[in-house]
Each structure stands twice: as structure tokens, then as C-alpha cells.
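The data are quoted verbatim here:
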Amino acid sequence: PIYWPDYVFDDDYELYSLPEVDQFIKDNGHLPGVPSQEDIASGVEVGEMQRVLLEKVEELTLYVIDLEKRNKVLEGEIGELKKRNQ
């Protein structure tokens, strides 16, 4: 079977928090799960790199969905505050 990153959408997939991603980048100079420049200096298998990149796109999608949910909550709270102040 092909190991494709749809596992990112499984309920038990542990997505790094954004502060964890930020710290990882500061410490390592690249995204978690993505090979460093030194790691690929001797070459990279294109299919595996495509899998890694798709995993990151799917993770980004989850971050965006989460941010949209948070924005909706904040919009509701702002709406309530506006009603109270009228």
C-alpha cells in the first residue's frame, strides 16, 4: 500500500501547536518533518518529497480551519459586546 499523508486528518494525529512549530524552526531552521538543506545535499527522492510537502499542505489546512473556527467565535463575542454597548 502507498503511505500517503491522509493520516493527517485522523482524529489521533498529533498536530504541532503553532508555538511548537515556531520554536522548532528557530532551533532547527526548517519545518518539523521536512528534511534540512544538509539532509538533501546529496539528493532527494522526488516521490518522498512530494509526500512530505502534501503532509505540510494538509497540516496547514488544519491550522487554517482552526483559525477560522476561532475567528467565528471572536466575531460572535464582538457582536455581543457591540449589542451591550449600544
About this structure: Residues 46-84 form the longest helix (39 residues). The mean pLDDT is 95. The two ends are 61 Å apart (CA to CA). DSSP finds two helices and no strands in the chain.
